[in-house]
Amino acid sequence: MARAIWNGRVIAESDGILEVDGTVFFPESGLKREYFRPSTTTSTDPANGQKRYMTVVIDGQDNQDAAWYYPDPKPMARKVKGYVAFWRGVEVEKDREKGVANSQ
């Protein structure tokens, strides 16, 4: 089991994570949707495609663009379609027997 935590709350949790180049991706089904708001921010990763972002909101505090995903990844990155990664202070923890993953 892996968890993404920000501001003392679990914002995503899943047994079905993917790890790609040191980044932990959670399936969309593992997100606690009440903590997420869409963002208009985008960026482009030359290898993987266009990134879209979501803002995490807890107790009136915003972590702008702290979650990101590839809505239509390039062919080499297809496995991350439907998955979300975190950064900007979001902690990613995995069960002890598997160690702890670092957030970006």
Question: Regions with pLDDT < 50 over 5+ consecutive residues?
Answer: none
Could you name the CATH homologous superfamily? Domain of unknown function (DUF427)
The total tally of domains equals: 1
The largest pleated sheet is described as:
6 strands, antiparallel
Order of helices and strands: EEEEEEEEE
- The CATH C-level name is Mainly Beta
**CATH topology term:** Metal Binding Protein, Guanine Nucleotide Exchange Factor, Chain A
- Round the mean pLDDT to the nearest integer and report it: 93
Proportion of residues in extended strands: over 45%
What is the gyration radius calculated from CA atoms?
A: 13 Å
What would you call the shape?
A: globular
Spatial strand arrangement across the major sheet = 3-4-8-7-6-5
Number of helices: 0
Total DSSP E strands: 9
- What is the architecture at the second tier of CATH? Beta Complex
Helix content: under 10%
Kindly, what is the distance between the CA atoms of the first and last residues, rounded to a whole number of angstroms? Answer: 19 Å
Structural class: mainly beta
